[in-house]
Write a structure and sequence with these properties.
- It is a single chain.
- 47% of the residues lie in helices and 18% in strands.
- With 287 residues, it is α/β, with parallel strands linked by helices.
- It has a single domain, classed as Rossmann fold (3-Layer(aba) Sandwich), CATH 3.40.50.1820.
Amino acid sequence: MREMSSTVGGTRLAYWCSSAVDRPAASRTVLLLHGLNADHDGLLTLTRLWPDTRVVSPDLPGFGRSGPLAGAHCLENYARVLDGFCAALDLRDVTVVGHSLGASIALALASAYPRRVRELVLISPVSSRNGPDTWPVRAYYGLGAALPARAARFWFLSRAAVYLSDRSMFTTADRRVRRRILESDYDTAARAEVRAIVEIYRSIRDTPMAAVAGRIPAPTVVVGGERDRLASPAALAALHRHLARSELHVVPRAGHLWSVEEPRAATRVILSALGRLAGAAVADRAG
């Protein structure tokens, strides 16, 4: 995969795309949307294991090598730019796969532009649910969002902040995997826009995600970890109930970074669920 770029609405998006040589007979096109403080590379390990799949993986605006949005970094604006990005690349009928922040943006994209999305995979989507299990996370982001820009950058993006954040989310005991994730996150945090973090936090906090989910017709896989404090099983279940066609999978002993820690296991869960949802859709049409 090689780096390319596209400018949409004044925002330059860097992206990586598997070529026809890499995937000569792709039956599925996947748009990968990474999580907060990550970049295009965050989920590529996962989709490298998917057969017959063309992958398009952008750095979201404000992260990686992409420029920031001209306006607010809110769910609505992210969805609008990504729809324009798909139009520029002539990406139709796509499978949108998002993790964490990327899953929240994927929800907004599928809700606002339903004809663009063939199927949806939400890995640990961060929602606006207000349960007590989310209080520490909301307090952390709420305090950071109230700080001046320089202090907020240290709060969210310093090596100490990245280390403590990742350590709190690890569930794997594999030190090599932990080290790989940490080194990647140190690198991506150094390039992130703190304005994007503050503004998208406020947007997710203020967005009624249940209403957003209720407008999505695409078959959807919702998957998360039993030990995830950012996207708790209760929050996932609440989101699942508002989706028209979805499967919910809560992985025992897994945390927020499970799909990166265990990409083979995540691939099995996701592809099996997509297959069942596709089969159910065919049966419905036949009936």
